[in-house]
Amino acid sequence: MAFCADCVKGFKHEGTAEGQWEEIGGIKSYVSVPPDGEYAKDTVILYLADVFGPQLINAQLLADDFAKNGYKVVAPDYFNGDPAPEDAFNPGTTFDIMKWFGSHGPEQTRPPLDKVLAALKEQGITKIGATGYCFGARYVFDLAFENIIKVSVVSHPTFIKAPEDLEKYLEVSKAPLLINSCTFDERFPHESQAIADQVLGDGKFAPGYKREYFEGCTHGFAVRGDLTDPKVKAGKEGAFRSAVTWLKTKL
């Protein structure tokens, strides 16, 4: 498993978070609900963050946007209060992503996620749609393999092996899959994108498969892109729209 330089690059977005922090299964989680309070009480969108966690304002704003489309959104802090620091964005930072990952691998991050999932089940949640970004996309695949989630969305995924993970998805998962991909992505390059289409496309995956492609965008664009760049702004907004449409259609 490896990261790329773009996994820790990005821009902080402007806005005010409208959700709140709650403990779910003992795990701190950012939770956002529709402003009118109207949503299906048996359904949750699980927001699985990149290495900056739900602490990053960008992630909170995205979670709020999903909530405004009629869903309760839960973004667990599976990094146990120690996500990658926001100042890793800054030039000259000494942050070492691989050193950080040494204590933030599956052994440390899956248990808190499982606690949240168990607590949601206890609360009567029967339908979960998951949207994962970079690091979080790996867990979307894992939860889909276990058929814990009903619908999958991944944006610029990290740690997805092509063709192995895609073939396994075809064989064992029942969750419709949307992939938001882009032009410049060392972690999910054009070759992997083409393999995904070959393995899952053309009706091969019966529950449903779609891949969106955002020209001129770079890994991280759906969460941490430079919104002063028209192509990146269009890509970020397009990836969000495609995710919402997929969830509304499939969940």
UniProtKB/TrEMBL annotation:
Entry-linked InterPro entries: AB_hydrolase_fold (IPR029058), Dienelactn_hydro (IPR002925)
A Pfam cross-reference name: DLH
Chain ranges of the Dienelactone hydrolase domain: 34-249
Superkingdom as given in the UniProt entry: Eukaryota
Molecular function as annotated in GO: hydrolase activity
Coiled coil: none
Protein name (database record): Dienelactone hydrolase domain-containing protein
Organism expressing this protein natively: Candolleomyces eurysporus
